[in-house]
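Example record

One chain of 97 residues, shown exactly as stored in the release files.
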Amino acid sequence: MPARFDGVIEAVRYASDGKIECVRAYERRGAAFSDHVLIGRDALLERLKQGKKFVTGKRKLNLGGMFDIEAPVVLSGDVISTRPGVEHDFLENVPIF
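Predicted structure tokens for this chain:
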């Protein structure tokens, strides 16, 4: 688990082909985090290829910069997942919106 991360994914939407369509996430802005933003698949792929670290989790109630972290997000080719070595996009334990 990365000690410092650039974003927290709290919900995901999958397309009919099983790939991630978009995610609802919080992004690091210096020492603080943004409000939730929607990030499309292409933008998320670009951020991960740039070396940004994303994790899955959710924001703690009334604690703006504190999160309950679940798992790191890994990129294998063009597959986005929380488990290495899978063949399709899958973010484990992340709610679908």
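Notes: The mean pLDDT is 92.
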